[in-house]
C-alpha cells in the first residue's frame, strides 16, 4: 500500500532501498539503496515490534548530519492512508524494502557503483540489455560459459 510493505525483515548490515521519496533534494529518493547501520527500539520493545528508527548510511545523501556522523540518516516509520469503498485503511511501516537485488525496470535512472547482471540466454525485450549495462559506472564482464573476464 503506497510503497509500504506489509512486513519487513531487517538486520544490521542488510541492503535496503527506500520505497518513497522522503527528501528528494538531499538524495532520499524512491530507489535509493544502502546499508542498515543500526536499529533503534523504544524502551522495553524489541522485534517483532516496529522500531523507532533505522539508521541507514546513504553515500549520496547531502543533507544535515545526524549526531555528527555524515551520511547516516534515521528512517522512521510512516503511515499511509487509503480510502477504499468508504473505509479508511492505514498501514504504519518503515519506507524500506530489502534490496540485495533489483529488476532492470527498477534500476532505470539509477547510477550504481557495481552491478551483477544476468540477462539470461537472450534478450526478450528490446533495449533491456542496454538499460542493465548502462547503470554501472564501470563494469567487468564475465562469460559464464568460458569463465573469461574482460
From TrEMBL:
Alphabetical list of Pfam families matching this protein: Pif1_2B_dom (PF21530)
Keywords: ATP-binding, Helicase, Hydrolase, Nucleotide-binding
Coiled coil: none
GO MF, any single term: helicase activity
Domain of life: Eukaryota
InterPro entries from the UniProt entry: P-loop_NTPase, Pif1-like_2B_dom, PIF1_helicase
DNA helicase Pif1-like 2B domain span: 12-37
Gene3D superfamilies the record matches: P-loop containing nucleotide triphosphate hydrolases
PANTHER family: ATP-DEPENDENT DNA HELICASE (PTHR47642)
Protein name: ATP-dependent DNA helicase pif1
Source species of the chain: Paramuricea clavata
Species classification: Eukaryota, Metazoa, Cnidaria, Anthozoa, Octocorallia
Amino acid at each position: 500500500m503506497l510503497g509500504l510493505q506489509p512486513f519487513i525483515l531487517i538486520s544490521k548490515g542488510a541492503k535496503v532501498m527506500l520505497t518513497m521519496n522522503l527528501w528528494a533534494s538531499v538524495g532520499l529518493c524512491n530507489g535509493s539503496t544502502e546499508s542498515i547501520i543500526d536499529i533503534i527500539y523504544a524502551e522495553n520493545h524489541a522485534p517483532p515490534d516496529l522500531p523507532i528508527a533505522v539508521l541507514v548510511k546513504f553515500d549520496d545523501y547531502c543533507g544535515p548530519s545526524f549526531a555528527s556522523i555524515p551520511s547516516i540518516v534515521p528512517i522512521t516509520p510512516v503511515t499511509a492512508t487509503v480510502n477504499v469503498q468508504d473505509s479508511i485503511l492505514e498501514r504504519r511501516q518503515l519506507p524500506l524494502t530489502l534490496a540485495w537485488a533489483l529488476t532492470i525496470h527498477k534500476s532505470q535512472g539509477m547510477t550504481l557503483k557495481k552491478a551483477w547482471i544476468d540477462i539470461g540466454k537472450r534478450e526478450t525485450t528490446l533495449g533491456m540489455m542496454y538499460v542493465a549495462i548502462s547503470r554501472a559506472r564501470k563494469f567487468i564482464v564475465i562469460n559464464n560459459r568460458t569463465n573469461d573476464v574482460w
